[in-house]
Amino acid sequence: MRFAQDHLPDQNSIRAYEQGRIVVNEHIVDRHVVVTADRLIPDWAPGFGELQPAHLEALWGLEPEILLLGTGARLRFPAPACMAVFLQRGIGMEVMDTAAACRTYNILLGEGRRVVAALFMIE
Question: Is residue 32 helix, strand or coil?
Fold first, then answer.
């Protein structure tokens, strides 16, 4: 699915997503990825089934206001210990399928929010 939203200058916008790939600006990403306004971090976790609190703790340094966790083609919730990583620090965390996370990321980015999207590929 392609987005019609205008590209935000000097920021990473998600332009399209489909099974097995996400387009961030003009970059095609085919692995699990973390997207922020100014960074792309590929291969941040081995896969949703192997997600550990340490994978999410590694994202604290990005200083998010909110974390969007895109769980692939369908909504899946991580282990409570993974959710607690951000909740204990008072940082918002929303879990949704990757398609919804891509759309939500662009909306929050457009609002000027410090959003981090941790996205598992749509399989």
Answer: coil
> In what side-by-side order are the strands of the sheet with 66-70?
40-42, 33-35, 115-119, 66-70, 92-96
Query: What radius of gyration do the chain's Cα atoms show?
Result: 13
Half-sphere exposure of 118 toward its Cβ, with a 13 Å CA cutoff?
27
CA distance 72 to 49: 11
For residue 69, give the nearest of 90, 48, 87 by alpha carbon: 48
Residues 6+ positions from 85 with CB-CB distance below 8 Å: 53, 56, 57
- Note whether 32 and 58 are within 8 A (CB): no
Its CATH architecture, for the domain 14-119, is 3-Layer(aba) Sandwich (3.40)
Q: pTM (2 decimals)?
A: 0.91
The tens digit of pLDDT for each residue in 52-89 reads 999 999 999 999 999 999 999 999 999 999 999 888 99
Residue that is written with structure tokens 């929010």 in the block: 113
Sequence-ordered list of residues with C-beta below 8 angstroms from that of 4, at least 6 positions apart, any chain: none
